[in-house]
Structures are given as structure tokens and as C-alpha cells.
Fold:
Amino acid sequence: MIQVGIIGGAGYTAGELIRLLIHHPEAEMNFVYSTSNAGNQLSKVHQDLVGSLDFEFTDTVNPNVDVLFLCLGHGNSVKFLEANTFSEDTKIIDLGNDFRLEADKVFNGKTFVYGLPELQREAIKKANYVANPGCFATAIQLGLLPLAEANLLNNDVHINAVTGATGAGTSLSATTHYTWRDNNFSYYKPFTHQHLGEINQSVKQLQGDFASDILFMPNRGNFSRGIFATIYTDFEGAVEDAKAMYQAFYKDAEFTFVADDFLHLKQVVNTNKCLIHLHKHGGKLLITSIIDNLLKGASGQAVENMNLMFGLEETTGLGLKATYF
Amino acid sequence: MIQVGIIGGAGYTAGELIRLLIHHPEAEMNFVYSTSNAGNQLSKVHQDLVGSLDFEFTDTVNPNVDVLFLCLGHGNSVKFLEANTFSEDTKIIDLGNDFRLEADKVFNGKTFVYGLPELQREAIKKANYVANPGCFATAIQLGLLPLAEANLLNNDVHINAVTGATGAGTSLSATTHYTWRDNNFSYYKPFTHQHLGEINQSVKQLQGDFASDILFMPNRGNFSRGIFATIYTDFEGAVEDAKAMYQAFYKDAEFTFVADDFLHLKQVVNTNKCLIHLHKHGGKLLITSIIDNLLKGASGQAVENMNLMFGLEETTGLGLKATYF
Amino acid sequence: MIQVGIIGGAGYTAGELIRLLIHHPEAEMNFVYSTSNAGNQLSKVHQDLVGSLDFEFTDTVNPNVDVLFLCLGHGNSVKFLEANTFSEDTKIIDLGNDFRLEADKVFNGKTFVYGLPELQREAIKKANYVANPGCFATAIQLGLLPLAEANLLNNDVHINAVTGATGAGTSLSATTHYTWRDNNFSYYKPFTHQHLGEINQSVKQLQGDFASDILFMPNRGNFSRGIFATIYTDFEGAVEDAKAMYQAFYKDAEFTFVADDFLHLKQVVNTNKCLIHLHKHGGKLLITSIIDNLLKGASGQAVENMNLMFGLEETTGLGLKATYF
Amino acid sequence: MIQVGIIGGAGYTAGELIRLLIHHPEAEMNFVYSTSNAGNQLSKVHQDLVGSLDFEFTDTVNPNVDVLFLCLGHGNSVKFLEANTFSEDTKIIDLGNDFRLEADKVFNGKTFVYGLPELQREAIKKANYVANPGCFATAIQLGLLPLAEANLLNNDVHINAVTGATGAGTSLSATTHYTWRDNNFSYYKPFTHQHLGEINQSVKQLQGDFASDILFMPNRGNFSRGIFATIYTDFEGAVEDAKAMYQAFYKDAEFTFVADDFLHLKQVVNTNKCLIHLHKHGGKLLITSIIDNLLKGASGQAVENMNLMFGLEETTGLGLKATYF
Structure:
């Protein structure tokens, strides 16, 4: 059994990791680190776990675990790894944004591979250190990469995406207060969301001459889970051409599928799937891409990466029952 | 125009008061006191007010206003009145729970009248100081008082009520975090809610020998506004008898009505109404009572009391458009 | 008192009209027509009205009312007016889309004026027949018209808007079923929504040479009320220039205001307001426009038009308490 | 692999069964019967299944499947079994209420065992025909049975429970319309819910002299999944006594657990768990019992019963990731 350590154990992504790992047939939680909760049962924080397991948070790490998941706020992974030492054999998967960009990917001699399996499955299989993609970044890249590979992103790309309140993390804030968010809608960081960096990087990895603008409006929806992204850009071919191209690009993908019909968000909630739909209007191709922000957008993809890094079936432990309702 | 001062201007009940007063034909806001927001436009906090008025929070009070609304956390009205002096002619309406009980009603020579118009309209008309009832307390009393007046509360009273998230106030908390509350349900303080004091007091005011238990379960619903209360107790008569009794009790009520059909909460949201429905099953009378917790349960009733205290029509400024959807 | 007749009395827009008219100081409901509900109390259908009034639906019309509101499904206003005759003095306000376009505006010798007060207040004042704008159309036009007046719409216009479930009307449907819509998100009619006709028409009325594409994505949100629209297009000036232009355009508007801060939908819910925010990013101007789809987007604007047509203050009966929470 | 047939394949409980069975290691869907959808992909109806499987609805049954799940409206299981014949070896699990009561349990020579594993695991293991309990009935029985076994239900039992909109099934209805249900609350069938029959039956099975009233208020919450039930009755012992009794009763239960802290509904959503909490106030024991109405309250328990009937581990295929948010 793969021995797993989790750092930042009280947050949403750690909670989701724990929910996945307790049913994973090849991995086992070795420790869950949370200084503020040390000594408490996991189920005091992740309260759906009542009855599921007897396991306490700890404030000491086991430096010899097989794999370490960093579930920390952005910028804190670097700080944690500076302060703590692990075995040379310990693989690391960072769920934050500390190592996602080329400029950041080498740290203390460790090189982090960007962990989007649909983009670089083989590199991940060989990696010891993986930077797990951001949630918006995952949904948007999966919508754009087939076009990039075909060098067809030659005009402005218009993106509107909505995320659920879990996207804002566990901290209490005005915009995650129930009375504010209930039946409400808003946006933030118009055109300047921090995930644009990794999106541009991956697009350029496939289409070296990409020089267009990505105009991305990130919105806050009044739901808890999921990202619903619509993307459009110029496309000369027929929708069937686009569909064929996307299906070819995702023919080996275990979790990303091209859907025939218009999508709605709950088709992917509580799964590790990404569903993509293609529609043509005039000269524009409309690409819809939906994921669960906490699973394919975070902890599910992290387990997917772990599976690849340890030579397991990519889908191991990720055959999840969709909530749907 | 009645000159109004509001203390605690950044909270929910103050916000609702402001929303009511800007359309009230006989009253005018003189100042809105909030030390933390002094100098800011009201619309920075109560953001629906953008375009409606140009008015700033202040940290100084005008001691000569005609009426003062105290919109403070429980216990803070006493503190505020100890630290600030107002004209002898200034009437005071306290929305907190500092002066609701007989034991608390006299403060510095001022006697607070319990401000439930359906119970003591005449006393309110003559009062200079009014203690505005609690939200759960309003819904439940309006469900019980006709039985109490008829001396028919002679057995255990079973109450289950659900309140929206605004009932918890503006403070950020775990149970008002969107990701927790969305699609969730829970209770708190089972059988021990603080409003039981004023409920028992009013029941005994009408039925002096009342000695039964009131078993009250307060629940948190995943909605923002409103209280839905179901109450049952033994009742020997027919449902028509109960209906006749309730209609007689509320024949002069401006906001409390007996409904023929089963109720649902949104019938009263964003109104000052209380709707009551009566149903008989076996020997039990089932009484359903619904209000908007911020209006009939707080600021709407406070304006109703102001109207009475100043000799206005009770409904002045309270002809509100229901949200309904 | 203006005598009002309402046709299609059981629908959402009729319900909102009734809620407005019962508090309108200068208008009075003369009849509410609904063949399927004739003889029933209004409060059997619009159940928040319990206690508010004693008034029955009818299946006969009074042909001599002062004003008739048609609250029918699209296409049914023509049918109704073909089958029923009213006095020459009866003014008509159609809330459907039968008479909004130039090609449709003359019917049986009656000429319908497009009823967007911010665009043509004076024409409405003189009109006997008004075509009330669509909900999306209202939000979007109010976001675009100042630019059109300045002949500055010279590039593609990108619009993403989200509407609440009341936008789909009272009919039960798969996408308004609670279990589907709750915590969900989706779109419909991408780039082909029927309101594009009236939007283009009004833009061209101000900017005769307008020839750009309006790319409009209409989305379904999991809330009941409101439209949140974001619009962006090329704009060379500074954001302050845009703000000055919008404030000038709306200086006489009673319900449309330019807001300084980012908007969220609940700022306008249950009001007749439109709030607009302007933001500049690179060469793009981002315009946010929000309304309550049932009020400024339907029944509230219909009353606003009635006020103008009858020489009343535009705001009469529309000083509504925002729900906000 | 156990060959499974599902009747009524387009409904909610069938959808949940399919979601469970596609990940069940020992069972395999042989056919999914739905006359109205015959020939369509399952994913056209259960749209989260896009990408998960290639499988069509059928309008013909395979009479030799190992187990048949009846997911039909109440009363239709009898009709279906009268019209269709299956092998003597085909086990049947009925999710409707046709065979739950003693008076109904024998049909065409088949005897249906009431399928609540916590009550009669051994009988289910030997059964060929199982009547799966109702959703409210499951939550309430699991809250009451330990007291019944100890013969301690000797006074009125007061129950208030809230169910999500999926409890009302797939049919479109006024009370499951989004605009009605959103942010709303209501009840139905006060004190007369049809599940009282099976609840009383199970209680009497353990406490033969049970003769008290069960006063059950069923409520509609504005959420999609789950049942939150509070129950109270007289209890002389300490809360620790109650806890010990419940823990003993459920010591072999795989899905029912006694929790130390107050509960909230989302602790069990998308799991097959029942969580129970005990609290003492005065002479009353307050029992809280929560389940997912579609899983432990329907399809999850049906799979649990299948596992028992086929000699599998009770938990097989039911190690579900909670949604939690």
C-alpha cells in the first residue's frame, strides 16, 4: 500500500483527498498534518467521516511516506518544504500554485511536472514531483488544448466561467456568507485571474506561436461545487471537424469526454470527469467545459496523478458515484 | 416628519429599517450611527441603496431625535444607553432582548412596554419605550395567544420552527458559511432557545394559570429570510371553533391573518405579515405561523410600533411588495 | 384613480403587477382576467396576497378600463386583441414580444411605442400603446445605449448574462424542476436569443451605422429572480470618460444608476432599478448591468410606462423595498 | 457476476441504482427497462453517465436475471409482476411500497421480507423477495428501534422530519417547481404520512405492547437530497444510558452510527449512512436521525439488501465518497 501524508489537512482539498483515499484500494493515509487540529479526530473537521474511520490529525510528519500531498494556501508550499525535510524517495504532489509555472518549477533541486494528464501523461508517469493544476485552469485548458495542438488558436479567446463557493476555500468571507451568496451572482478579478498564467503556458506548449488574448471573466455562482466554462473563438471548420479533433485528442483520456448535447453543471458534480461540448455559430466555435472544482479541479486530479506516478491504473479509486441531484 | 436615529447601523435589522424608512411618508432618518463605518455612505454597507440616497454613517448621535431605534447585539442596548443621553422626549424602540422581560423592563426610570401590537396595541400607543419582540417569539406568540386568551393551553405545546440565515446576524460563522449551509439542515439550542422567556411571559399574561411545557425545537434552514413555525397541542373543539377564535382575536390586526390553505414560507417573505393556518388531527390542533424574521420579526414590527407610538396609521410605510419568488 | 385591467392574470408578470398595483396610489385594479381561474380569489394563485385583498379572477373583460396590461405568452397578445375589443380610450401595455419590433409595431391601426423610458421617455408619455421591453433586452440595452449614442459601438460586443428561473415562466419544465436547477448552471439558445432583435433595433436607433456582431450567451442560474449581464467591447477612452458618458446619459433616469463598485445581483432584487458598473481592462470596456427580471425587466417597467403615459411621476408606486437577502 | 435487471429505469431511484451498479464489483446491469425510453442511451436520461458507459434502455425484460429491482411508483410493482413472469431463481427487490406491510407481503406465493438490515439482517440473507423500506420510514425506524427493543416506547413520540425535493420523484409538480421551492419551506400530510404504517409495524415487532401515538410532521425543504429527522419522547435514563443502548443495538451495523455531536444533513449526503445523535432535555430524549433519502432511504439500501441476499459483504460497492459540500 502506498503510504500517504497530507499537509494542510483541515482544508477543502485535503478533505476531498481523505474522502477519496479511504476508499482507494492501493493507498493508505499514513498521517494528516494540521497543527491547529492536532490530536482531534478527522471527523471533528470533516464531519461526514463520522463512523468511517478512527484517525487523528497530527502535528508531526513522517518523512518517509511514499507520497506527500500539499494542500496549502498559495505560497505556503514553498514555505513548508523549506521548513521540513522528506526522504529522497518521497514523491510530492502540490495542490497549490507554487510550482505550476516554468519559472517556479525547480525548487531545491526538485523539478515539478505540471500535472494535467491529458496534456502530459507520460511526463507525469516519470515524475517525482507534480504541480497539480488550478481548478479554472483545468476546465479551460481541457477546452482549449485540442485547438492549440492543431495550431488553430489565432484569434481572441473569450471565456466566461462560474465557480462554486468551495472555490474560495474554507476561510469565512463576505462573499461566502450565506445571506450574501444565496440566490446571488457576481464576478471577481475580471480578465486578470491568476490561472491565466498556467493556461497560457500550456497553450503555448502545444501552439508555440500563440499570441492572442485570452479574455477570461471568472464568476461566483450560488452553488457549492463545480465550474461551468464557456469559451468561444474563431473556427473555420464545421462542428463535426471540431468534434473529431477533440475526440482524437481525448481518445486515451480516462476522465475527459466529448458530449453530444448541451451540458449542465450537475453532470459532473462529485466526479473526476471533465465533459466537453462543441457548438458552432457563424464563424465561432463555442466550447463548453465542466468539472467539479474540488475533484478534477483539485483532489481528484491529484489522485489521478498519484496513480500515474506509481504505475497504477489512472482510474484507481476514482470510480465515483455522481451526486447529480 | 418624525426624526429618526438608528444605532448599530451596519447590521441586518438596521439595514431593513433604513429600507423601510426611506419610503416612509411620515418619518425621516436623522442619523445612522455606526462607529466602524462613520463617514461612509450607507450604500457601501447596504449596497442595494446605491442610487437611492446620499447619506453617511456617523459616529455622533443627535440627542434630540424623536425616536431612536437600537439595533444592537443582545446586551448592548443597556450599555449604549448607559453611555449616551437623549432628550426626555426621545422615544426608544429596542430591537434587542435587553428589556423584553418583566424583570428587565425598567431601566434608569424608563419603563419598556413589550411591543407586540396584537397583544397590547393600546399600551404601545401610550408608550415612550418599547421592547421589540424576538423573531421566533413573534411567530410563536401569534400562533399561541388566541388559545391562551381562551385559557385553553393546558397541555404540552410542541413547536418546531425553522429560521433563515439572516436570523444569525451579520457575523461570519461556520454555520452561515455558504458551503456549509447550502442544501443543509440542522438545529441549535434544542428546547432551550432564549425566546422561551418572552413567549412564556406573554402566554401567562393572557392565561394566568399556564403551567405546561413549551417544547421548542429551533432549526436552521438553507434560506435567507423567514420563519416557518408549526405548533401543536391538545384541543377539544373542531377546527372551525379554532378558526373562529383566531379570527376574533385578530379581527383588528393589520398584519396577522388566518389562511384557509396550508402555508409555505414565501407567502410572507419581504412583508410585515404573519399568516396563520389551523388544522385538526385527532385531538391535536396544528397551528402554522409564518413571518419574515427581519420584518414582522424585527424591523417591520419596529416601524409598526413607531407608527402606533406616534399616532399614525399602524400600516404606514408597511405596504410592502412581497418578493414571493 | 386609473382603472386597470390585467389579461393573463395567473402568470408571473401579472402577479408582480398585482403586487405593485395594490400599493399604487393612483391606480386601481378593475379586473384580472384568467379563464382558467375565473371565480377564484387572486390569493389562491398569488398566495402571498392572503389577507391583502378580496378580489376574484374573472373571465369577462371591462372594455372601458383606462389601461390594459397584456401578460400573455409571446404571440398571444395579437390573438387576444383580435378576439376582444376595447374602448378607443383604453391604453394598452403589452408585456409580451408581439409589438416590440418596427415590423410588428402597427396593429389594427394602433401604433405601439417601444417602452424603454431611458431611450424614449417623451414618446412614451404621448403613447397610447406601449410594447414593454424584454427582460434580457432591458438589462443589455441599458448597458449599451450610452455607447451607441456616442457612436462608439464599432466592434464586436460580447455579452454573457444569467437569468433566474422566473425568466422561464410558470410552466413546469425539466429545467425549472427543483432537483435539476438546484446548485446547477447551464445556458440555452447560445448567440440566438430572441431578444437580440430589439437590442439591435434600439442600438441602431441611436447609432445608425451600427454593424457589429452582438455575441450574446444567455445562461440559466440557480436563483429565482434577476439578471446579471456582463458586456465588453473595445473602448479607447479611460474608464472615467465612460463613467461621465453614462452618468450624462442617465442623468434624468429615475431607476438607472452608475455604481462605483463591482456589482452583485441582489443589489436590485425586488426593485425597479438597473445598476450599471464600468471597468476598463486593456482596450476593453467591461459594462455590468443588473436588474430584477420581473420588475425593471417586466412588470415594474410596465408600471413605470403607465405612470409616464398618464402624466404621473415616473416613480409613483415604485418605491420598493429591496429584498437584498 | 450477478446479473441485474432494473424496472422503471428513468426514475430517480433507478438512476441512483445505475450509478451504484456501474462501480459494483460483483454485479452487472443486464437490462434497464423503460418503455418510454427504449432504444435511448441511459445517458440521455441520467446525464451524468455521459462517458461512463454505452448502454441502452430496453422495453423487453430478460426473465432469467439473478435479481430484479422494481423502481416503480407505488402500486405499480404489483401490476408489473402480474403482467411479467420471471424465473423461479430471480430474486426481487421492490423499492415501492407494495409489499412492505404484513397484509401485503405475500404475492403470488412469494413472501417479501421487509428489508431493513438493522432490524432483520438474517431474514434478508435468506430472502428471495425483499420489500425495501421507505425513506422517511428508514430514518425514523433507525431512530426508534433501539428504544422499542428495550420496551421503552411508552409515551407519545413526536417526530419532525424534512425531506429534499428528490423525495417527490421525477414528476413535475407545483411544489417541485424551482421558483416555488427555492428558499421556501412547507409541510404536507401532517400526522398522516403513509410511512407511518411500516414504522408502527417495525416498532411493534420489537415492542409488542407498543400503543402510543407517533405524531409525525413531514416537511419539504429547499434542498435536493436527504432527510433530517428529529424525534423526542419520554426517557427516564441518562443520555449515556441511551447512547450505550443505541451503540449496542447498532454494534454490527455497517452504515448506522451514533455520533457525539449535533448533526447537520450534509454529513450523509451521497452516502449510504445513517447517523444518529442523542440528547437529553428534562425527561425527554431527543433523537436525531439523518440519511440520504435516495441511498440509505432507497437505492443504497436496495444494494445493501442485494449484497446480503447474495452472500456478499454488506458494504460491497457502497464505499461512497460523500459530497459533503
The radius of gyration of chain C is 19 Å. The CA atoms of residues 38 and 58 of chain C lie 4 Å apart.
